[in-house]
Amino acid sequence: MVAAAAVVIAGACLYILMSDGNGSGHHDDDDPVDPDVRDMDLMMAVDGKAVEVQWEDNPSVAAIKKLARDGLTVAMERYGGFEQTGSMPSSVVKDDSWIEVGIGDIVLYRGVQICLYFDDNAYDFTRLGKISGMSDSEIRAMLDKPSVTAVFTLQR
Hints:
Elements: H1 2-18, H2 35-38, E1 41-46, E2 49-51, E3 53-55, H3 59-67, E4 72-79, E5 83-87, E6 97-101, E7 105-109, E8 113-117, E9 121-131, H4 136-143, E10 147-155
Antiparallel strand pairs: 1-2, 1-10, 3-9, 4-5, 4-10, 5-8, 6-9, 7-8, 7-9
């Protein structure tokens, strides 16, 4: 009985050590961000069109910058009539909370999906940023289609 309890406790400790605190088991995101990446701007293009974004200053955006170092392409599909969503090749740190989103909002869903909004929704997300410099109708025209491709790169 004592040996079984020790095995359970040891397993739980190992899980905690390997976890990032949000249950994903991904732990690279706690690494310090490379200073070269930290000082660069994250850029986004949708179907080849550069899109201005006001990015949040949070660990999720910092982790996406690491993925975008060599270019990050996310194939996205329209979902629910209000967003484009697509998965990154690996998960990143998240800090989900219940938030309302609207046209132009960019969020992280479940630590691995990026969602670009062209209408309203509310759910447990991590806020990443907001498209700026475009009208609501321009954002809708860009995103309200069967699929888009978002490319994330870094720029000095």
